[in-house]
Specification:
The model has no long low-confidence stretch (mean pLDDT 88). The chain has one domain (2-415). The chain is an all-alpha fold. The protein has helices at 2-20, 30-43, 49-55, 58-76, 79-89, 94-112, 114-131, 137-151, 159-168, 172-195, 198-201, 221-240, 244-256, 263-268, 272-290, 292-304, 310-321, 326-336, 342-354, 364-375, 382-415. Helix content is 75%, strand content 0%.
Length: 417
Amino acid sequence: MHADWIILAVFAAVYAGMALGRWPGLAVDRTGVAMIGAILLLVTGAVGGRQAYESIDFSTLAILFTLMVLSGQYAASGFFEHVADRLGRGRGTPAAVLATVIGLSGGLSALLTNDVVVWAMTPLLVAGLKRRGLDPLPYVVAIACAANAGSAATLIGNPQNLLIGQSGRLDFWHFTAVCAVPALVALGIVHAVVARSRAFRRMAARPIPAAQGPAPARTDRASLAKAILATAAILAVFTLTEERGTWSLAVAAALLVSRRHNTRRRLGEVDWPLLLLFAGLFVVTGALAHGELTARWTGDLAAAVDTRSSATLALVALAGSNTIGNVPLVMLLLSVLPDWSPASLHTLALFSTLCGNFLIVGSIANIIAVERAREQGVTVSFMDYARIGVPVTLASLAMAWGWMSYIHPLIAPMLGI
């Protein structure tokens, strides 16, 4: 019983840190909070080394690592620079540029995970928009919202979908059949809301000239071809085998074999703090899930959070994603609540992803976009983001609730779900 109270205390401290982004008074971010919490459980004996090891979902970490290496391959080929340069040099209205930004951000995020797409594209996009005399602020919010919305379409679109897919052994193409349509509609909602925002309307009426300046280096076609083949291999892994983690690592190894790109540099592009954040949260939530007190409370919790109710999951996702964050929320729910049906897992994935657009803190992709824009001299305040993110989320969530409540029951039997 003593160990259970230690687990509860550490869990409360860790998830308070997730909600606040840090521990007050300390320069400890979310990754540090998760790692310190896991270490405290180990050194106090509340969790044994074997239990901690077994709590970590290495398959999910392996897939996320592979997607980061794959994104690095696209970056090394000059693909992201080419995309941003085309946006910065093409002619057209601000609305046309906005539609292109949203389409690219959402589409790429469905295949490369939203976090890595936002990390790579935001600074390049901001620089191109500045050269064209456009205010980057609404576009920065748009790229974050579109990355979240587009990532909802596939199991590899974002970290929480990876967790859900691994937990429920969900079929990749069944998931896409269920979630792709609401993801596409959500992208349309992002465009509609951003286009009506005050910051965007100030510049929307006038055509804009193409940007001046030197063109970036040409795209390395061989490296880009290798990235495209690796993307196809990842899709094959998710289609043909349940050993997704192992075969994903094989794809990562193939990408690292190169005569031109240094391995140390490529591994330096991997977001190791995010992987450590996952590992720490796996240990903390795993300890809570296996504690005696949790076992007693699971029935009450399951009654309070009915995983079969779309309305309940929508409220939980909206509240949880914008306090502790959507990834910690999904980890927690999967750890302590039993009996998730495929339909409930599809709903959780869709809702937790779309709710991440509500506030800056709702998604790691939002935080990355805002921070990367600040590095380029563009400040997106909490309210700047909320003026767009709140209506985007409420409209997207209402649409997704209708889809999962009325359309999903019709298509699920056809898919054999």
